[in-house]
Amino acid sequence: KETNYIYIDYSAGVPVPKATTDRTTIELNRMFTLGRVYRDGVTLHIVNSGVNLYNHMRNNHERLIGVRGFERASGGVIAEKLVRYLTSTDGVFYLGANKIATTQQDTSPTGPPRYSYSLVSRRRRQLGF
Q1: How many CB atoms lie within 10 A of CB 13?
Q2: CA dihedral in degrees (26, 29, 30, 32; nearest 10)?
Q3: Which residue of 8, 29, 49, 71 is 20 to 30 Å from 81, comparing CA positions?
């Protein structure tokens, strides 16, 4: 009385249905289980219990956004510099599964110059704060 594992083997690029009694022979990346069959005398017990991981990455991303939202991993410290000016350190943040890296900023007149680029005029101009 052994359980037979029914699976699809996609190793050669063409899906081939197969069966085995040794579950460890089912490779995790190119083969997937459809179900299990167990025979007790003349009675077959069929369990449809394959892997259900459709769109796993997107579902995990949506879960991360729902549970964690926008999350600071490191850096990104904001401080006041003089009156009306801010500085920030390099930072790493996550929005769901997306990593967002920011660079340090200094909005004071002594900070690095800031530029904007116009796609219409194709010109760059320095911004003043």
Answers
A1: 6
A2: 50
A3: 71
